[in-house]
Every structure is written in C-alpha cells, then in structure tokens.
C-alpha cells in the first residue's frame, strides 16, 4: 500500500511547522519555553499511548486531559495569544488594509520629529538622567496612555528633558509618543519576566522589554547609572547606542 502525498499535504505540513516555530519564538521571548517543551512532550506521550500502544484506559484519561487542557492553555497563555493576535493585526499589510477601509493615512515620523528625541536622549545620557520613551507605531497604546498624565504636546527636546528631570513628578514613568505628538508621561508599562535579561539591566529595561514584547513600539532607555542609551524593539535589546545608531534604529520601521 502506497502512501499518497500531494502538494496539499506538503502545504499542510509546512503550515504546521511554521505555526510550531512561531509559537516556539513567542514562548522563548516571553520566558515560557519550558512550558512549551512540556506541552510537546505531553502531546508526544498522548499520541504514543493512544495511537501506538492503544492503551484504552490510560488513553481515555489522556483524552479527557487534552479536552480540558485546551481551555487551560487559553487561560495560561492569554497574554501570548493576545500578543499573537495583535501582531497579526499590526502587520504591515493588515494595517494598510485597515487604513484603506477607514480612510486614515499612516503618519510617518520624519527626521525633524526624531532628532529632538535623539538629542534629548544624548543630553540626558551625558547628565545621567534616567528616561524611558515609547514610540508608538501601528499598534495603538491607548491602554498605556491611560495609566499616565496626558500631555498632547509637540515633540520638543526641552520638554522631554524637563519631564525626566530628577525632581519632576513624572520622571519615574514612561513617556508615550504617538502620531507626531508627546501623548502622555508617567505611564506604567508591563514588565517583562524573561529570565534571559542580563542582571545588570534594571527595571526601566525590563519595562521597555515588556512593551516591546506586546507591541511594535520602540522603547528607548537612558540609564540613570551609566548614562548609556538602549532600545528595546520586538523583544530584542540594542545596547549602548550612539546618536547615529539611535537615529538609524528609530527610522528603521517608519
């Protein structure tokens, strides 16, 4: 008996492989890779018990666990599932379709919008003033904005530096820049619990990583201890940047 293998079967296997790989990357970024590995091992044991060894009693127990486990996984990985759906919705082509249907145009940050941010970060770095700036792109950050104080001002170097001045009441939170405006300051960001983050990086870096894992925003960090400038973007750190590197990175996806 020959096994029939068509192009449709090949596409099916390819899509499943892509889904598993993307899930693996998502779990690795969120620090849940051990849980993902455990799920794969459980599924493998379930298939061996039910399909290969045909153990009816143990197989039925595993079947019940799998049926209940789907709901448990949705509850356990609700943040990862939300991030996956947000990533799909914020994809370049999906965003273009939404803008076409709604008639909204994408507001692209120009050089004159980015340079005040870069110069403010360089200035704060020299003075070792801690700062955390989040630049919104396709994915809206309205939930984050609501946690802080709304400013809604033009992007201005002096304003950015004054917000993060050590005696300012808003210097501990994050500033959100959206649609060519300083939208809010003193905002609270989700903190990443990824164990792979180096120990020497503080809470600002963990908060920047957290927002980069759940959105497509650039999160700029100015270290209060060293004055170095870093960026978290799509779950990855870019450390010890100079002015040219920071400008290049901020214009990369705009």
SSE inventory with pairings:
Blueprint: H1 7-30, H2 33-52, H3 56-76, H4 78-89, H5 92-102, H6 111-127, E1 131-135, H7 142-145, E2 149-154, H8 157-163, E3 174-178, E4 181-187, H9 203-214, E5 218-222, E6 229-233, E7 236-238, H10 243-250
Oligomeric status of the shown chains?
single chain
Strand order across the biggest sheet? 2-4-3-1-5-6-7
- Main β-sheet description: 7 strands, mixed
Write the CATH architecture name of the largest domain.
3-Layer(aba) Sandwich
Instruction: Catalogue the unreliable spans.
Output: none
**Number of DSSP strand runs:** 7
Order of helices and strands: HHHHHHEHEHEEHEEEH
Q: What structural class is derived from the secondary structure elements?
A: alpha+beta
The percentage helix is 40-55%
**Mean pLDDT over the full residue set:** 80
If you compute it from the alpha carbons, what radius of gyration comes out, rounded to the nearest whole angstrom?
A: 23 Å
Name the shape in a single word: elongated
Enzyme class: transferase
GO molecular function, one term: ATP binding
Protein name: Diadenylate cyclase
Transmembrane segments: 6-24, 31-49
What report would you give on this structure?
Keywords: ATP-binding, Cell membrane, Membrane, Nucleotide-binding, Nucleotidyltransferase, Transferase, Transmembrane, Transmembrane helix. Probably a homodimer. Belongs to the adenylate cyclase family. DacA/CdaA subfamily. It comes from Bacteroides fluxus YIT 12057. The chain is an alpha+beta fold. It folds into two domains: 7-89, no CATH class; 111-252, DNA integrity scanning protein, DisA, N-terminal domain (YojJ-like (1), CATH 3.40.1700. The protein has helices spanning 7-30, 33-52, 56-76, 78-89, 92-102, 111-127, 142-145, 157-163, 203-214, 243-250, and strands at residues 131-135, 149-154, 174-178, 181-187, 218-222, 229-233, 236-238. Helix 6 (111-127) packs across helix 8 (157-163) and helix 6 packs across helix 10 (243-250). The longest helix is centred in the N-terminal third of the chain and has 24 residues, at 7-30.
């Amino acid at each position: 008996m020959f096994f029939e293998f068509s192009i449709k079967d090949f596409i099916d296997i390819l899509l499943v492989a892509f889904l598993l790989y993307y899930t693996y990357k998502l779990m690795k970024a969120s620090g849940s890779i051990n849980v993902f590995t455990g799920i794969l091992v459980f599924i493998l044991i379930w298939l061996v018990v039910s399909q290969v060894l045909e153990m009816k009693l143990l197989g039925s127990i595993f079947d019940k666990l799998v049926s209940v486990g789907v709901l448990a996984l949705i509850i356990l990985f609700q943040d990862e599932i939300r991030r996956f759906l947000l990533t799909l919705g914020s994809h370049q082509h999906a965003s273009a379709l939404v803008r076409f249907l709604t008639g909204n145009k994408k507001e692209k940050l120009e050089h004159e919008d980015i340079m005040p941010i870069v110069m403010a970060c360089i200035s704060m770095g020299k003075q070792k003033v801690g700062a955390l700036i989040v630049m919104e792109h396709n994915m809206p950050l309205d939930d984050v904005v609501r946690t802080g104080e709304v400013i809604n001002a033009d992007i201005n170097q002096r304003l950015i530096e004054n917000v993060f001045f050590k005696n300012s009441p808003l210097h501990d939170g994050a500033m959100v820049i959206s649609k060519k405006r300083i939208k809010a300051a003193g905002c609270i960001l989700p903190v990443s619990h990824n164990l792979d983050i180096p120990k020497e990086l503080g809470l600002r870096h963990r908060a920047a990583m957290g927002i980069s894992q759940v959105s497509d925003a650039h999160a700029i960090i100015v270290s209060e201890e060293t004055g170095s400038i870093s960026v978290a973007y799509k779950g990855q750190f870019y450390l010890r940047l100079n002015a040219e590197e920071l400008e290049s990175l901020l214009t990369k996806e705009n």
